[in-house]
Specification:
This protein is 38% helix and 32% strand. It is of the alpha+beta class. The two termini are 33 Å apart. InterPro entries: ANF_lig-bd_rcpt, Peripla_BP_I. One of its GO terms (cellular component) is membrane. It comes from Nyssa sinensis. It holds the Pfam family ANF_receptor.
Length: 82
């Protein structure tokens, strides 16, 4: 069950409650052409599809996946993702 949270602003407590976002972005960094990447990619895509197809999970909020191939470099993959 979703419960509104109190919003804190620069000047202190804001009146009212926060609203539910229409989209929540999540990201993944993998070497997609690897054993782990070839296994993780379809699993992550299936999980996102499951969440988005069940309105009781995020109730009106879409889960959006941003997937990036690190090409075997954690450093370069992270920099490229930003």
């Amino acid at each position: 069950m979703w419960v509104p949270m109190e919003v804190m602003g620069k000047t202190g407590n804001a009146s009212g409650s926060s609203s539910r976002p229409s989209v929540v972005n999540i990201g993944s960094l993998f070497t997609l052409n690897s054993v782990i990447g070839r296994s993780a990619k379809p699993a992550i895509l299936a999980a996102v599809d499951d969440v988005n197809s069940d309105s009781s999970v995020l109730a009106g909020t879409k889960l959006n996946l941003i997937m990036h191939d690190t090409n075997c470099s954690g450093f370069l993959g992270t920099i490229e993702a930003f």
